[in-house]
Specification:
With 210 residues, this protein is mainly α. The protein is built from 10 helices and no strands.
């Protein structure tokens, strides 16, 4: 594999996984905070934990059926595109981010509510205050979501198709090279994937400490 193609695959992997993590965070962060403010509850926690165990191939199959030509969203022409991969990885990252936010915020939720009330604030101000107080938790949540997205292979293959120069990412490229018997290339790709995941995680940890 040439260096130019390796860079292309790496950048696409970063773009797809990063976009998926951010897209998942938009609803996942408020959900995690609201669950923390309400004490979680058995049903809420059960759904979050069930989502964390959701098989990626099942998510990929579901989105494939939705986006295929005969599916209800087939007219959009999104199957076998990077955007379809973003959707699949966002679905998988969503419960991870929500669970991390919930876990980090639940211990201080009541304290924040009492603080806001004591200062004459309204109930509507509790959520944004809790968000600010949980800002360090957000870095860990995003790291978890990004890690889950960039390491995913089952759903990405089903909805992306592993098309060279179009939807091939590091995980799918590793599978292809391994099947071809190109073990050295697969190992090199694996090291790149590991390095990217560690680098992004390290950056988020640094932000968490700030």
């Amino acid at each position: 594999m040439e260096a130019a193609e390796l860079w292309e695959i790496t950048l696409r992997s970063l773009l797809v996984a990063g976009t998926a993590a951010l897209l998942a965070a938009l609803p996942a962060v408020p959900l995690g905070l609201r669950l923390a403010l309400k004490g979680g509850g058995f049903l809420g926690r059960a759904l979050l934990y069930a989502g964390m165990a959701l098989p990626s191939v099942v998510v990929g199959l579901f989105l494939y059926l939705l986006l295929s030509r005969s599916g209800p969203l087939g007219f959009l022409g999104l199957l076998y595109t990077p955007f379809a991969m973003v959707l699949a990885e966002a679905v998988l990252a969503f419960p991870l981010i929500a669970a991390f936010v919930f876990s980090g915020a639940q211990g201080r939720a009541e304290e924040v509510r009492l603080l806001v009330k004591s200062l004459g604030g309204r109930e509507g101000q509790v959520l944004p205050t809790l968000l600010w107080e949980s800002r360090r938790t957000l870095a860990a949540a995003l790291a978890a979501g990004f890690g889950g997205a960039i390491s995913e292979v089952g759903a990405a293959t089903l909805v992306g198709g592993d098309i060279r120069h179009h939807t091939r990412v590091l995980t799918t490229a590793i599978v292809v090279e391994t099947r071809k018997g190109e073990v050295e290339a697969a190992l090199a790709l694996g090291l790149v994937l590991l390095g990217v995941a560690l680098l992004v995680t390290a950056l988020l940890v640094i932000l968490e400490r700030e």
